[in-house]
Amino acid sequence: MSGAQAPGGMDWPGLIRVGIGPARLGGLGLTPAQFWALTPAELALMLGIAPGTGGAMTRARLAELVARYPDGQAR
Q: Where are the domains of the chain?
């Protein structure tokens, strides 16, 4: 997939291109309704991405997420 994306973020333009784009250009040829109805697992299966290849979350990644999205103060 291509296009600008935030580090660790989703390449939404690339996903939409491959999902909705015509098969002759390498897309899946889905309608917008079909594309948005897919679960991430279904889309990964259609794209030939093996489940579980993302790896388990590491302590470092968890610490990064905690720093980025801290819990709010209890009321």
A: 9-51
Burial class (CB in 10 A: 0-12, 13-18, 19+), 16: middle
pLDDT (0 to 100) of residue 30: 93
| Distance between start and end Cα atoms, the chain | 43
Residue 68 CA to residue 66 CA, distance in Å, equals 5
The tokens for 55 are 């790896």
Give the separation between CA 31 and CA 71, rounded to whole angstroms. 39
Contact 39, 49 (CB under 8 A): no
pLDDT digits (tens, 9 = 90+) for 1-48: 455 555 567 788 888 888 999 988 888 999 999 999 999 888 888 888
Tokens 């897309």, residue? Answer: 27
Outline where the chain has alpha helix (H): 12-20, 32-37, 40-47, 59-68
